[in-house]
Amino acid sequence: xxxxxxxxxxxxxxLGLILLAGSYLIxxxxxxxxxxxxxxxxxxxxxxxxxxxxxxxxxxxxxxxxKLKLPKVFAILLIYLLIAALVTLIxxxxxxxxxxxxxxxxxxxxxxxxxxxxxxxxxxxxLLPPKILAYIMQLIFYLKSRxxxxxxxxxxxxSLNYLFILFVTPFLAFYMLRxxxxxxxxxxxxxxxxxxxVATKIISEVNETLSRYIRGQLMVSIVIGSLTFLSYKFIxxxxxxxxxxxxxxxxxxxxxxxxxxxxxxxxxxxxxxxxETTLAVFLTNLIxxxxxxxxxxPQIIGKxxxxxxxxxxxxxxxxxxxxxxxxxxxxxxxxxxxxxxxKNVMQETEENQANKI
Length: 357
What we know:
Largest sheet: none
Distance between the termini: 9 Å
Structural class: mainly alpha
Strand content: under 5%
Radius of gyration: 24 Å
Shape: globular
Number of helices: 13
């Protein structure tokens, strides 16, 4: 028994040293990572989006194929047809409003630097301390520089790449859905025979965890986005409510930090209107996050990841610094995968040590 505890301690110490060495190596090569990350992003983006799409659609395809006895290819094509109809309706009814609000918001952002100081100065004596005012102005300058027309034009240069990704993703997802069993079986055969059982277990757990996490996060983001839109539109009277609620829904995919990022633009816009609107937007986001954290997320996502909040926040920060938006979105799934691998490897090591005893 003592030998087993010593072996477990040695394994944990080894993993800790590997983690520290890896972190040090990443810090040393960090200045050269941006070009590598840009290259990998252009290659991996369609595969990651296709993988997420296959995880989302797999339960529906399985139901149609197994329960309703539809051929798998026909089931996939049927779901694709329904998605195409839904996307067409969104383009017809929502995209024009979205574009109009984006144009209005861009115009308002151009004048934000001149209009907001006067409003804040008027409320300074009764509402906000000078230091808070200074922090708000710094935030405004940062947002103005980040979302200026120059940066927007720079992002438009990548439009062809984005169109290519959107075009390729459905085809990749189709083959992933059609050949999911063969792909999972081939991944298991890569490992040596001695470790095939643990490899199969890891693949199964990763599939189950990622599937629940992606579907759960999507449902939570849709619910929060819808409630945010209704609150901004009918309670706060906030302009650009569709655009701001969509941004909040997207940012909600980022654990813990996402709600703050999603609420910041709405608070900035509300600050240009009145302190009553600012307070209403702040309370709306606070109530929605309490509602999400205590009711929506536990019911929809549950505790399947079982990751400590501090570890999640650390992973999100490191991912954001290393890989930008992709790092923010992939930090938690990658952390969950690493946890599953480490847990199963340690269990196999303990079992081997116990068998030797």
